[in-house]
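S.,

Sequence below, as promised.
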Amino acid sequence: MLQKLFCLCVYACLCLFLIIKIKKMSQKTEEKLFEEWEAVRCPICMEPPHEAILLLCSSHQKGCRAYICDNSQSNCFGRFTRSLIINEQYPSKKLVCPLCRGEVSDWTTDEPARRFMNNKPRSCTNESCEFLGTYIEILEHKNLVHTRVSQVDPQMLQKLSALKDCVNQIESARREGDDNLRRLILGSRS
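The prediction came back faster than expected:
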């Protein structure tokens, strides 16, 4: 009986030791990931990635980690995927990793990395603004401060209105017939 109790105690101590060791290893791994994520820059805009996605390239297993912004403001991922369409003249027709030049087979979202990178402080993209905040704070700031109609230059609004009028005239002339369109275009030159 005493021998079984001793074995149980040794087993419990061993389990406790392994649990502590695993926790320490996971903390070191987490710290290493944070250090890696801290240095990450989007290869398109060279900023910390907003709403980052991870490209899965041919060198991914060897450690290549290309994170690219995937949001409506910078649209880096959209520009990256459009590069395939633009380069259709070349026979390869494949996406190439911007870091290692390996073939990109897929992409994924790495949620812990995305959360970490979205929480990094960044400055407002408006040159005259000194606001600094996380990705979510920047979005809120832009919506509150930089998208008000009252801040739009009145001369630009007049030019935009004149351009819209011109486009409307051309569209109506086009619908009425080519003669009116020619007259409108030739009349605007003189």
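The longest helix spans residues 2-39.

Coffee later?
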